[in-house]
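Recap slide: EF-hand domain-containing protein, sequence and predicted structure.
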Amino acid sequence: MHTKACDQFWWFIFTQVDINHNGKIDKNEFKEYMNKYIGVISRKDIEKAFKYCDLDNNGTIEYEEFKKYMLCE
């Protein structure tokens, strides 16, 4: 069960990754966030993680995709 507080938390994190605040995370934003907060990650691993998150394969990660990934759904 997801609560409103849980949604607010994931929305806050999503907006931190979505640097240009267009409602989508592109590969550059994803890479920058991962390198800044997770540590240096290989380009190959970034690509794999991004592809895993981008459920509709449109080249960006929208909030619902991000939340599903973060909640391991």
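DSSP finds four helices and two strands in the chain.
The two ends are 12 Å apart (CA to CA).
(End of recap.)
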